[in-house]
Amino acid sequence: MANEQVLDPVEDGGTVDHGRRRFLTATTAVVGAVGAGFAAVPFIKSWNPSARAKLAGAPVTVDISALAEGQRLVDEWRGQPIWIVKRTKQMIDILPTLDPRLADPESTTDQQPDYARNELRSIKPEISVLVGLCTHLGCAPEMVAEIKPEPFDPEWKGGYFCPCHKSRFDMAGRVFQGVPAPINLLVPPHHYEDDNTIVIGVDPQGAA
């Protein structure tokens, strides 16, 4: 039986309750960018294989047609949470300004396929696809997309924060300097079947 996915609105702070985001739960979290309201979206039927097939590494097909700007959809592949985020223009424009604060802004360490080895770490500029596990000890970071001072970073420009050991990543999954996480968040193999469909676990045709 296929799983169901839901776009789950959160509070104004832009964070998600840690307990509700266990990676075995295929839900989505709405995160408001600055000046943007929250969206109410109905259930989305998943086209995914069974849980047993996912754990075996079968590709996962995800419908992103209902994904709005500033929203994140969480699914699962090989027992790992997969984050699919539709970034706003503001999120994209901020990324280059963060390079001086990052440990590996150009993703020189092999944390992504070659086709995602760019500043946005994505195939399409607006769509980010990441493995949602901190690269320190595999904890589940929180998505804190709102651009405002935070207790963990007074110059916060939006991204991912791991409350377990205080690691921080930007909206491309690039790790900040001076945190426990040693490398950027991983980008899984994926490709677009069409404009509204992403297949997790299979590289684009012709990709090395």
What does this protein structure show overall?
This protein has helices spanning 51-55, 89-94; strands at 4-5, 7-9, 28-30, 44-45, 60-63, 71-77, 80-86, 127-131, 142-144, 159-162, 167-169, 190-194, 197-200. The chain is mainly beta. It starts with a strand and ends in an 8-residue tail after the last strand. The protein is built from 2 helices and 13 strands. A 5-stranded mixed beta sheet has the order 2-3-6-7-8, with no helix packed on it. The protein has a 3-stranded antiparallel beta sheet with strand order 5-13-12, with no helix packed on it. The radius of gyration is 16 Å and the shape is globular.
Please give a handful of descriptors for the protein shown.
mainly beta, about 210 residues, Ubiq_cytC_Rdtase_Fe-S_su_TAT, 2 helices, Ubiquinol-cytochrome c reductase iron-sulfur subunit, five-stranded mixed sheet
Q: How would you sum up this structure in a few lines?
A:
With 208 residues, this protein is mainly beta. Helix content is 5%, strand content 25%. The radius of gyration is 16 Å and the shape is globular.
